[in-house]
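anyone seen this seq b4? input:
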Amino acid sequence: MSTDRYVSPLSERYASREMQYIFSQDMKFRTWRKLWIALAETEKELGLSQNGRPVITEEQIAELKAHADDINYDVARAREKEVRHDVMSHVYAYGQQCPKAAGIIHLGATSCYVGDNTDIIVMTEGLRLLRKKLVNVIAKLADFAEKYKSQPTLAFTHFQPAQPTTVGKRATLWMQEFYLDLEDLDFCLDHMKLLGSKGTTGTQASFLELFDGDQETIDKIDPMIAEKMGFQECFPVSGQTYSRKVDTRVVNVLAGIAASAHKMSNDIRLLQHLKEVEEPFEKSQIGSSAMAYKRNPMRSERIASLARYVMVDALNPAITSATQWFERTLDDSANKRLSIPEGFLAVDGILDLCLNVVDGLVVYPKVIEKRLMSELPFMATENIMMDAVKMGGNRQELHERIRELSMEAGRNVKVEGKENNLLELIAADPAFHMTLEELEKTMDPAKYVGRSREQVDAFLAEVIRPLLEENKDILGVKAEINV
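predicted toks r here
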């Protein structure tokens, strides 16, 4: 590791090696060479010739394929220092290895043929990796929801005690957010298209010259390149570049995943404060340099921290897309080199953290029960009132008495620091005609969680299990957390 210059924490601490390779120089320049091979093959297959003789031969293509992966980086770097152009430097370096094919490399293309098509290919591979991890996060949450679908817990609105839910039902809320992200990601993946080879302003003028104005043949170029590179199609029209709105669409998907992870991590951090649920805490892990007893939710905090970065990063492609002039400007390049890879690497790190956290969540049922029972008397008052009405009471009068007694019990808890004695107060009030024992029978938390269990069962059966069955070949991903 270099210690005398800046190194991105995304590569050193957060992102997986797999995602780092997708955005590596090696992946980039190997893809360039694959694209040059695809272009040469397409031009040969379409009969590109001069005076009846083929311009491109099988021998040239074989030579290109023989050196597709052994990139002579030293030659390319030296050439770029001289000519200040990365694409032409790599054309030169490739040509040094392929002297027979040197003259036909990049024929009819502009720099964006390799640059932009590679960007699309790299983003597509990045999305596929994120999709695999996202599906596995959903799978882990499904197991958690199934396990705790019947565990009553205090629900909160405004972070104030509200009608109970179950631990598993709460997990389905996190799961549904990720499921929506998966829908967006799949839509994005399904609509990824290559730029193709359209020339300097997108008009394919160079190919009109190469193929002597043969429109029918030129129409076949982009579909053939797309097929060779594993894509269904190319964008039908473009300037020199593919629309930068594609980057906006992609990074918005990343930002959506980040937002979902942030929401879940916030909930987990609050639950850890309440001592109800904890993220994994390793045997030798230190929570605080000063307070040795602390168990800080550092993984969830890191999720939130990275997620905020990604959500803000989504502004970059949107602004870049909005400010492109006519058929292209180059003020997108430096921004794209930062905003796109960093968005992917950050979300990759986020999903690894989510996998780690959800896989090791610790639930404390006794703490959950204690907090719920301390609030349950307030929530049971409607049932108590209904029972009292059945025994001859006046609903309106009983409502007022419960309101007054609830205020008194609330004061006892907040001002006096006492236990919630609402049931005792109701039992002592002759308006209710109910004993403490009868009232305590109403204190079964399961009576107040509504259809939480049934909703978990239905969501898993109808939405999540079919999804996981369709994707069973990519399940089982484990995440390694670096620091």
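Residues 288-293 have pLDDT under 50 and may be disordered. The chain is about 60% helix and 5% strand. kinda curious what u guys think
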